[in-house]
Amino acid sequence: MKPMSLKRVVSSLLLPIMLLALVPGTVSAEHHGNPGIGSFLDCDPALVPPRCVSVGNDSIHRVYIDPSVPNGIAWAVRRSMSGDYGPTHLVMRVQSRITRRTDVIVRAGNYGQNGAAGWVWCPPSSPQGVNGHGDRWCRHQRLFFNLNPTYRAFFADRGSRAYMACHELGHTIGLRHWGNPPISDGPARPTCMQPDVPNGPTDLHRWDIEDINMYYALPATSL
Ligand SMILES: [Zn+2]
């Protein structure tokens, strides 16, 4: 998400959720003050672009990468799945076709100057529900990479693509932004969940990994 105006909009939308996350006894990761993992934003199709963050329905996260995704970006997504999320409780699997159990459908295209280099959405048609934490889970989430030239910097080199892949995949499992007040005072430590930093941190912070492992159970049969 590039322009400041959008950042402010997202920040304002996040305020009530941040306050909720501070209520003791919630799933928020109180060990470090980060609100951790959860769903946020209504998946209102009228938003431009339509976007919302949902959690996965379980620990196995199946990702289908559409042929519209350029090779360099597809490679970054696969590498992030194994390198960034592989060490967590999540089991990330690339799918060669969309099935009923697909969690994420990755697409790329020139979507115009819509304010976002990448975003995630749970369309009304997707299988979805509410889990025991009160979060919206969603399968068939859409992950879009915007190839509009405005956002060229976000895909211009391997580091930027790695950042984008790690960041947007994080949203598909419910990770929120760091360094995006009022979520936190600032990115004291590097994480790909910082917003708006092409060529920014390419990896998850260990607190992100702790959040993931607190939220998602290790699958009983992982492979
Ligand atoms: Zn983001």
Second-tier CATH architecture: 3-Layer(aba) Sandwich
* Poorly predicted parts: 1-31
**Helix coverage percent:** 25-40%
Structural class: alpha/beta
Q: Describe the biggest sheet? A: 5 strands, mixed
Could you give the count of β-strands?
7
Secondary-structure element order, N to C? HEHEEEEEEHH
Q: Which fold does the CATH topology refer to?
A: Collagenase (Catalytic Domain)
Q: Which distinct ligands sit in these coordinates?
A: zinc ion
Strand order of the largest sheet: 2-1-3-7-4
CATH class: Alpha Beta
What's the number of helices?
A: 4
Number of domains: 1
Average pLDDT reading: 84
Describe this structure in words.
This protein has 223 residues and is an alpha/beta fold. It has a single domain (45-210), classed as Collagenase (Catalytic Domain) (3-Layer(aba) Sandwich). Helix content is 25%, strand content 15%. Strands 2-1-3-7-4 form a 5-stranded mixed β-sheet, covered by helices on one side. It has a two-stranded antiparallel sheet with strand order 5-6. Helix 2 (71-83) links the parallel strand 1 (60-65) and strand 2 (91-95). Helix 2 (71-83) packs across helix 3 (158-172). The termini are far apart. Zinc ion is lined by residues 1, 167, 171, 177, 195.
